[in-house]
Amino acid sequence: MKFNPLRFAIATSITWGLCMLMVGWMAAAGWGNDGLVNVISALYLGFKATFIGGIIGLMWGLIDGLAGGYVFALILNKVNSKA
User: Fold this and answer.
1) Which of 12, 24, 45, 62 would bridge 57 by S-S if both were Cys, CB 3.0 to 4.6 A apart?
2) Taking the domains of the chain in order of start, what are their residue ranges?
3) Cα 60 from Cα 43, distance rounded (Å)
4) Residue 55: per-residue pLDDT
5) 3-class SS at 13?
6) Which pLDDT score, from 0 to 100, does residue 37 have?
7) Is residue 83 over pLDDT 70?
8) Would you say residue 47 has pLDDT above 80?
9) What one-character-per-residue DSSP string does 16-77 give?
10) For the whole model, what pTM was predicted?
């Protein structure tokens, strides 16, 4: 099966962005693990366990998910075409 890299990247982007938003907001509400927030904040500048930090995480997640999803789909298509 061949993936459309752009569509896969958009789906990955939305999913990862919403995950980052939820992690930030859940940590701000007192749920979750501060260790996870510390690890993510080392990668995503401005990400914190606050309302605004969750929004910043959403933006980073959208960008990161878009790039990662696109590259992943390209590699997957390349591997599947050789098999």
Assistant:
1) 24
2) 5-82
3) 9
4) 97
5) helix
6) 92
7) no
8) yes
9) HHHHHHHHHHHHHTT-S-HHHHHHHHHHSTT--SSHHHHHHHHHHHHHHHHHHHHHHHHHHH
10) 0.89
Give me the sign of the Cα torsion angle 60, 64, 65, 67: positive
Type and span of the H or E element at 5? helix 5-28
Contacts of 60 (CB under 8 A, 6+ apart): 20, 43, 44, 45, 46, 47
Single-letter amino acid, residue 32: G
Amino acid making up residue 1: M
Angle in degrees, 0-180, between the axes of helices 5-28 and 34-43, rounded to the nearest 10: 130
Q: What does the CA dihedral 51, 57, 59, 61 come to, rounded to 10 degrees?
A: -150
